[in-house]
Amino acid sequence: MSTEQISDDAPLRTRRDDKSGDLAFVGRSVTINRPRAELFAYWRDFQNLPMFMENVEKMEFTGSDRAVWTIKAPVGTKVEIETEITEVVEDSSISWRSTEGSQIKTEGRVSFTDAPGDRGTIVSADIGYTPPAGDLGRAVAKLFMAEPNIQARHELKRFKMLMETGEITTPINHR
Question: What is the pTM of this model?
C-alpha cells in the first residue's frame, strides 16, 4: 500500500480495485465504547491479537516490526504469512504488508478515530489481499466463512466484546 493510497480520504474498501490490479480490498468498522489510546495500545501489542482473532493459530516475531503468522484456512489447511509494519501513527493507525515469500500477498491498515458525541472510538480495518487460487480460492473461503471480509467483521465484533466487557461470548449450540 503506497503512502499515496494510505493518505486518500476515501476508505480503501470503497475502491473497486487496486492500482496494480492484483489485490482485493475489504474493510469493516466498529464503534467501541473505550478511549482511542487504550484500544490502540492493546492492538499495538501484537501478542494480544490472537485473543480475538480466532483464525490466528500462532505468531512468531522475527524482528521488532516483523512477524510470521500461522493462520487456519479452509479444509484444515494452514497458511503462513510474514508481515512487516510499514507505518505507525501513535494512537491513530497501524499499517502493514506481507513480505516476499509469504503464501498470501496482503497489506492493510487498522485505524482508530474518535467517535462523535463522546461515544468511544471507531476502529476500522482495511485489508488488501490476493486470494490463494484466485476467484476459486475466494469462493471456497466464503463457503467456509474464512474469507477476509467475513473474518474482519467477526474479528472486530470480538475485539469490541473483549474491550467493552473483558470477555468474548460464544453462542451455545442446543441439540
Answer: 0.76
